[in-house]
């Protein structure tokens, strides 16, 4: 994992000296996250990989302008979003944001006995089900915050919506997930 400083240094090395090793470090740092994001839009691994490959091709072809980019993370997510949408329009199969295609990485609590293990597994199942049932945009925003750990401001920039919208969607998601998990555990 590269720090913000290391990302900036590698951006400069790519922009000024066309250093492929620095570009490769940036590629390795961002690839999986961008692929998951693209996958949430285009729905297939192959299409997501193609989109991310194109993102990095755009980045390399525009390397001279890298120094003008203030936040590479947001910049790459915006390119990924735009290229993913373009990919969808090519295939004419616009379906959005399936959690089944994304890898939710839930870390279960340390289990002390079989009952706790069953309870934890049930809670994870209910959580995943609740996330799956969120409205598409709400689900995307929730996953970008929780899984990709993006800040509200970054997500607002990527999706071209206000920070207040992000806040409202997160409140909706949290309320629905909490209610669904609590209801299932009680009922």
From TrEMBL:
Origin: domain of life: Bacteria
Molecular function via GO: DNA binding; sigma factor activity
Gene Ontology terms describing biological process: DNA-templated transcription initiation
Assigned keywords, A-Z: Sigma factor, Transcription, Transcription regulation
Keyword Transmembrane: no
InterPro entries in the record: RNA_pol_sigma-70-like, RNA_pol_sigma-70_dom, RNA_pol_sigma70_bacteroid, RNA_pol_sigma70_r2, RNA_pol_sigma70_r4_t2, RNA_pol_sigma_r2, RNA_pol_sigma_r3/r4-like, WH-like_DNA-bd_sf
Chain ranges of the RNA polymerase sigma-70 region domain: 26-92
UniProt key word Thylakoid: no
UniProt domain RNA polymerase sigma factor 70 region 4 type: residue ranges: 125-170
SUPFAM superfamilies hit by this protein: Sigma2 domain of RNA polymerase sigma factors (SSF88946), Sigma3 and sigma4 domains of RNA polymerase sigma factors (SSF88659)
Protein family per UniProt: Belongs to the sigma-70 factor family. ECF subfamily.
Name recorded for this polypeptide: RNA polymerase sigma-70 factor
Species this protein is from: Niabella ginsenosidivorans
């Amino acid at each position: 994992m590269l720090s913000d400083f290391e990302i900036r240094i590698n951006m400069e090395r790519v922009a000024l000296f066309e250093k492929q090793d620095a570009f490769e470090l940036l590629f390795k740092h961002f690839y999986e996250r961008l692929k998951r994001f693209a996958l949430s839009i285009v729905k297939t691994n192959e299409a997501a990989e193609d989109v991310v490959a194109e993102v990095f091709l755009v980045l390399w072809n525009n390397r001279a302008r890298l120094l003008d980019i203030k936040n590479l993370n947001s910049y790459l997510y915006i390119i990924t979003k735009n290229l993913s949408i373009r990919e969808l329009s090519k295939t004419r199969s616009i379906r959005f944001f399936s959690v089944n295609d994304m890898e939710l990485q839930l870390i279960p609590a340390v289990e002390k006995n079989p009952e706790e293990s069953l309870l934890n597994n049930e809670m994870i199942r209910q959580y995943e089900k609740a996330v799956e049932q969120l409205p598409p945009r709400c689900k995307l925003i929730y996953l970008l915050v929780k899984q990709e750990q993006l800040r509200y401001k970054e997500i607002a920039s990527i999706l071209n919506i206000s920070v207040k919208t992000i806040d409202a969607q997160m409140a909706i998601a949290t309320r629905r997930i909490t209610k669904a998990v609590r209801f299932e555990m009680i009922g």
